[in-house]
Amino acid sequence: FDPRHYLGTHCYSFPKTGPHRLRFLLESVKDLRETLRKKGSTLVVRKGKPEDVVCELLTQLGSVTAVVFHEEVREIL
């Protein structure tokens, strides 16, 4: 979870993530983790800036062969 997603938007500082969306995200992550555990896997969840957290995880895990991510598309006005 990137703390920057819970700050205001670039324009007008509207909240990006309100309480209902946050609850939905938390429930979705919990459900995904439970589904993965039933299949013998797991889900690593961290809070922080992805550029910092990913480096820390790679150091901790050691034997990572690939890292996949997506970037949020921002509309330019």
UniProtKB/TrEMBL annotation:
Record's keyword annotation contains Secreted: no
InterPro entries in alphabetical order: Crypto/Photolyase_N_sf, Cryptochrome/DNA_photolyase_1, DNA_photolyase_N, Rossmann-like_a/b/a_fold
GO MF annotations, alphabetized: damaged DNA binding; deoxyribodipyrimidine photo-lyase activity; FAD binding
Keywords of the record: Chromophore
Gene Ontology annotations of biological process type: photoreactive repair
Domain of life: Eukaryota
Residue ranges of domain Photolyase/cryptochrome alpha/beta in the record: 1-77
One Pfam family linked to the record: DNA_photolyase
Protein's name in the database: CRYD protein
Gene name of the encoded protein: Crydash_0
